[in-house]
Amino acid sequence: MVQEVWDHDLSLVEVWRSYKRLYVREHVSFAEACTQYLKHLKDQGRSPAYIKSMHWVLDEFKQRLGDSKGLSFHTTFALQRELKTTRNKAFKASRLGTFYLWAKKQHYIQEVPDLSLPKKSTAGTQVGFLTIPECASLIQACPSELQGHLWLRLCMGLRV
Prior knowledge:
This protein is mainly alpha-helical and about 160 residues long. It has seven helices and no strands.
């Protein structure tokens, strides 16, 4: 009898833990979550420069994705589509990744969107070098005020 009660209580605890782990607050707007996250960063003692750059990235994506739907509607597909059309993709993806990890811990979203970017292979590209006659013609055509700079660049390995 005691064992049955104990097993029953354990199963209730497991149900509760599963519920808390998967629980999602449904109506959190992106703007509200951004405000809370920036406050969280400030409370954590993050540098003003980091908070400012995070604010810029979040503001950009707030304009791109809109704020009419809740944060739980931010899908991998939508975020990757917007990342493709922006500059500094890798930087913004890392900033957004930390924001969405925080949002998951706050139970605003169920899973973190995949913000990984495709790797660009440079294995097939060959780096060209200037030949000696090409360097000589470049030096002769260069204005005298830029000659010192050109020599320095040639010594550092100016590429084609």
